[in-house]
Description:
108 residues; mainly alpha; 79% helix; transmembrane helix
Amino acid sequence: MSAGDRDLVSIALSLVTVVLGLVVVILGLRVAVTRRFPAAWVRGGRLTASQRSQPVRRGGFLALLGAGLLIQQAPFLIPVPLAVGRALFAAALLLVMSALGWSFLVRR
Length: 108
């Protein structure tokens, strides 16, 4: 399935998903690298003291989840062979599972 075979609504939804995935990756990397949550997250999310002490854990989870989302959307926007599309889908699933593992295993 190529981008030419789809209607404009599904292409727009894929592009919105890609933009959201990029935002999640950037925010996750920012939180993991700076080891600080944005002030709006702390105020709006009402994070407890134990949750505020885990920025690397939450940032890494968000970055991996966003990367999985981006890789999953690639075959819908770029014409790729079926085997490559399946490999990208498997890589996206691996990233999502890695995000879950990161969330459970990383404590600091």
